[in-house]
Automatic annotation (TrEMBL):
Name the UniProt record assigns to this protein: Uncharacterized protein
Transmembrane segments: 6-31, 43-69, 75-93, 114-132
Keyword annotations of the record: Membrane, Transmembrane, Transmembrane helix
Source superkingdom: Bacteria
Keyword Transmembrane helix recorded: yes
Annotated source species: Candidatus Segetimicrobium genomatis
Claim: Transmembrane is one of the keywords in the record: yes
Length: 138
């Protein structure tokens, strides 16, 4: 259990997912300012890489919680759930993703760069807040 906790608490993993989302936010914002309709394949590959690292964090955190360890504040659970939800949204908005299909059913255009910039910046902030509640208890 201590090994899982050590992995879950690695600041480098938190930094990687937060920085990855910061890069994705900037990328999507620039694409939006350039009036691009879609983000490229490289963007989506980087997003999937960030989500793989984040999935490792979520799984180790869930296993640590199931084993009986508790964070300094129970708010960490809330932020963990919100980060997980954000990851599902990011994954679902990819081309042919389940959320993308749902969002493009109506006549309104789906503005991919703007939507992903908002989702990625939100995800970055949630990751940082989850780290703060887990590491510092506030």
């Amino acid at each position: 259990m201590l090994q899982l906790l050590a992995i879950h608490a690695l600041p480098v993993l938190t930094a990687a997912t937060a920085a990855g989302n910061a890069v994705l936010t900037a990328w999507a914002f620039v694409a939006h300012r350039r009036r691009q309709v879609a983000l490229g394949r490289t963007f989506w590959m980087l997003l999937l890489l960030v989500l793989v690292v984040l999935a490792g964090q979520v799984v180790t955190g869930a296993l640590v919680a199931v084993s009986g360890a508790r964070p300094r504040t129970s708010l960490h659970y809330l932020y963990g759930a919100l980060v997980t939800t954000g990851a599902v949204v990011q994954f679902g908005l990819r081309p042919q993703g389940f959320l993308r299909v749902a969002m493009t059913r109506n006549e309104a255009p789906f503005r991919e760069p703007r939507s992903l910039a908002i989702v990625c910046v939100t995800q970055m902030l949630l990751i940082l807040r989850a780290y703060m509640t887990g590491a510092f208890g506030h």
